[in-house]
Structures are given as structure tokens and as C-alpha cells.
Amino acid sequence: MKKKTIWTVAIIMGLSFLALLFLQLNYIEEMAEMKKEQFDESVNRALYQASRNLELNETMRYLENYVGKDSANAKAASASRTPTSFEQKTAMVKPSQIPKAMILRNDSGTISSTKKSIQQMVRNRFVYQKAMVNEVVYNILYSASNKPLRQRINFKLLDQDLRAELLNNGINVGTSINYHFMVTTQDGREVYKCADWPTDASEEDIDEKSYTQLLFRNDPQAKMGVIRVYFPDMNSYIYSSVRFMIPSVIFTLVLLVTFIFTIVVVFRQKRYSEIKNDFINNMTHELKTPIASISLAAQMMNDKSIQKTPSMLDHLCGIVLDESKRLRFLVEKVLQMSMYEKKTAVLKKKHVDLNEMIETISNSFTLRVEHTGGKVYTEIGAVDSTIYVDEMHFQNVIFNLMDNAVKYAKPEEPLSVYIKTWNEGDKVCFSVRDTGQGIKKEDQKKIFEKFYRVHTGNRHDVKGFGLGLAYVKKMVDLHDGEIKVDSVYGKGTTFTIRLPFTPDDEEITE
Questions:
Q1: Alpha-helical runs (H) found in 143-185
Q2: Which of 42, 209, 438, 496 fits 234 for a cystine, CB–CB 3.0-4.6 Å?
Q3: What 3-state DSSP class applies to 446?
């Protein structure tokens, strides 16, 4: 599949997942806002009804007191006065027990006077009761409002009314949510606070989750009270209605992360596939040259028409031997990387002098570098130069670094290679610096990966499998060292390796 197609599918799927996640979060937010509005309306309605009940209870209490006093006064007055003639006649005759037919046959004047007397009694009673109610209202206005709020309010009854009204408005107090309340004056002075009012809550949190309502709102402003109800678990109560959406959001996030991981794996596999194809092309080219040379030498040795002189036979045998070694070296590189990938290698470590190893290898490379018109410069500065390594593999490490310097030299320009050793604390360090092509910054992080080569495609101006630096990195890691690359594209590259210093007489426990 082409990279463009993969990117198109990835973008479409990614946008779809993000849109789905956005819709789910938006739906949760809208549901929470709706629940909050319903909660606000229910609480305010309950507070209003509770404050109204408080005023009604006070009015009923005053009415009961006045009705009780009036009944007692009426009984005392009736016991001390003489009944009127109308009351005596009414008591004796009892008009309610006389049949209507008999009443109609009585004297019309008697009926008319009785009716007028009853109407007058009802009117007098109405006037009296109205005056009594007015007296109660005046007393409440001028007497009750002068009392302190603490005397006017039964806080236990207020708590019961508040709880009942919250339940009536659909708020499950006690099971789903709890509340605390306090009563203050209009100017903020505390009158009452419930025993379980939280002391560790911040003022900002209390203000955010509190509702207020005026008490005795028809009284003078200075006599009014304020009830404040605080719901500490309000947010949990509101978002409890949208908890069923949380698993869907989590599953969507899991799918999104899985999709992103899948796309990353697809691109990684595609890159590995490209690297593998590049490796196969390079390997085919690398193997083709020695095979062709061996085949040509064999044909010449087998051609009876060609006279074989001793010098010619020596030359052909040398070609076969050299190309066979080259084939073996190429195959050995691949096998070594496979072996170390499976961690089945056993290193044969021993004490080696790094300075001597550097000098030996640099001397062997002098001819190759001088062939480009350049020179190898060696600076031996390490005083403590003993390292505990596998000599063969570590020679290959230095060989690969210098081989890369020669391979990536600038065309038609002399190459200079600088090899340096020094001590750094308890480390023995050496560097290989060249004046070649250099490495681009984006490639420097990948050069230690297997099969990775800076050049791509089917170009074979630089031979190799992309295994040299991967092998170097693996060997340095296995010897508890560290490797660093510094390169400026177009100017050259420096590889620096640091290894632990080990005295010759120190015993190493593997």
C-alpha cells in the first residue's frame, strides 16, 4: 500500500474518532448543564416554600394564641351576663329542630324578626372575627418583627420543612446528596449554624455550591433573615446522571490510542520493508562482484586454450582466495548481527592496550587513506590505556569506523582521518574524526539501526549492507561503553567512544 493511501485512511479514521469523542464530551457537558439547571430550580423552589411555611407557621401560632384568649374571655363574659329575650326564645324553641311546614304556618312577623336576629348575630360575629384577625396581623407587623430571628424561628422545624420540600422537588436528600444550612441577618451576622457545618471547606467552594433565600421577606429590610444552604457533594450529584457515558468515552479513547499505535506500527513495518528491500539490493550487488571474480578466475583456469604460467596461476589463485575472504567477511557480518540479536554470543575478553591497537589499525589503513590523497593523523594521549575487551570484535569496531571514513570521503578531495586517545576520569576514550561528507542531522539518530544507510534506493556508489555502525553500537554496549556521534554535513564526522579503564592486575568477574 502506498504511503499516501495510508496517510489518507489514517487522517479520515483519526478525524472520525476525534469527532466521535467531541460529540460524546459535548453531550456529557449538555446533560450536566441541564441537570444543574434542574437542581438550581428545585432547590430555589424548595427554599421559597420552606420560607413561606415559616411565615405561615408564625401566623398560625399567633392566631391560635388569640383564638384561645378570645374563647376564654367569651366564656367568662357569658357566665356573668343575663341572657337576652331572643336568646331565651331561641334556647326554648330551638328553630333548627322545628319542621319547615310548622315554621311556614307561624306568624309571619315572628319569622321575620327571627331572621333579622340571626343575620344580626352572624354580622356581629363576622365583624368581631375580622377585628380579631386584623389585631393579629397588626400584632405580627409591630410586635413579632421586633423579636430577634432566633426567637421567631424554630430551627428544627425549619430543617424538617427544608428536607421535606427538597424531597417533594425530586432531590433525594440523605441517600444521594446531603446539605448543611445556616441562618444570618440581612447584613450577614450569623444567627444559627447547623452542628455539622463543614469547617475545612473554603469560602470559594461554599459560595459556589450554596443557595440563599430571604426569610420574612415582607418585613422591614432590617428585620429580614437569610437562609443559606450548602451542598458539598453537588458536583458529584450532578455528574452522577452522566456516569453511564464515561465507559463509552474510555472505550473511544482506547480505540483512538490503539488506532494511533496501529498506524505507527504500519509505518514502521513499511520502513522496515523498505530497509529490507534496500538491504537485499545492496547485498545482491555486494555478493555479485566477488562471485563474478571467482567465476571468471575459475573459467580462466578451466580454459585449456589459455596457457597457464606459474605467475598466472598464482594470480588467479590469489583472486579466488581474496574474493573468498571477502565473501566470508560479508556473510560473517550478517551472521554476527543475527547472533547478537538473539544474545547468544560469548565474548572472549582480555586486557588489551588501546593505544597499541589504535596504532596498529591506523598503520594498516594508511595506504587506503593515502590513495585518496589524504593522510592518517594519530594522537596518543591516554596514559591509562588498558581496557578489558574481546580483542577481535573491538578491532572490528575501530576498523568499521575507519572504513566508513574512507567510504564516505568527498569525491575528488583528499581525506584526512584523525585518531585520538585520552583519559577522562576513570574512562579510556578514543575518537575517529574525518573530513568527509558528514551526516545530516535527521540521519544521525538512525545510523546505529540495522540495515539503515544514509543513501537510499539502488545507488551503489558506497558499498555495504548498513550493518557496520549497528555492529559497532552493539559491541560498545556489550563492553559497557558509550558511543557518541558529532557531524556537520559537508564538513566531516567524529565518533567518540568511552570505555571503563581496567588495570592489568585487576580481576574481572563476569
A1: 149-152, 155-168
A2: 209
A3: coil
Q: What is the pTM of this model?
A: 0.47
Instruction: Please write the tens of the pLDDT for every residue from 366-390.
Output: 877 877 788 889 999 989 889 999 8
Averaged pLDDT, 270-298? 76
Query: Lowest-pLDDT range, 261-275, 331-345, 450-464?
Result: 450-464
Closest-CA residue to 399 (of 364, 439, 429, 428)? 364
Cα 459 to chain centroid, rounded: 46
Cell of 484: 557518541
- Any idea of the CA torsion for 358, 363, 369, 371, to the nearest 10 degrees? -170
E-assigned strands of 216-302?
Answer: 225-230
pLDDT of residue 412: 78
C-alpha cell at 122: 352572624
Could you tell me if 191 and 185 are in contact, meaning their C-beta atoms sit under 8 angstroms apart?
A: yes
Cβ-proximal residues to 215 (8 Å cutoff; 6+ apart), any chain: 51, 54, 149, 153, 183, 224, 225, 226, 227
Residue 496 pairs with which residues in a beta bridge? 431, 484
Higher-confidence residue of 197 and 471: namely 197
Using the 8-state DSSP alphabet, how is residue 243 labeled?
G
For residue 211, give the H/E element and its range.
strand 210-215
The per-residue b/e assignment along 100-124, b for 16 or more CB within 10 angstroms, e otherwise, is eeeeeeeeeeeeeebeeeeeeeeee
Q: How many CA atoms lie within 13 A of 200 on its CB side?
A: 0
Contacts of 450 (CB under 8 A, 6+ apart): 275, 337, 341, 466, 467, 470
Note the pLDDT of residue 417: 92
* Tens of pLDDT, residues 388-408: 998 888 888 888 888 888 888
Mean pLDDT is highest, among 147-151, 229-233, 305-309, 439-443, for 229-233
- Cβ–Cβ < 8 Å for 236, 29: no
**What does each C-alpha distance from 338 to 143, 467, 471 come to in angstroms?**
102, 11, 10
- Three-class SS of residue 496? strand
Q: Which of 139, 130, 4, 117 is nearest to 61 (CA)?
A: 139
Give the pLDDT mean for 46-66: 83
Q: For the chain, give the mean pLDDT.
A: 79
CA distance 457 to 453: 10
Which three cell numbers mark 323?
A: 574474493
Rounded Cα gap, residues 138 and 128, in angstroms? 15
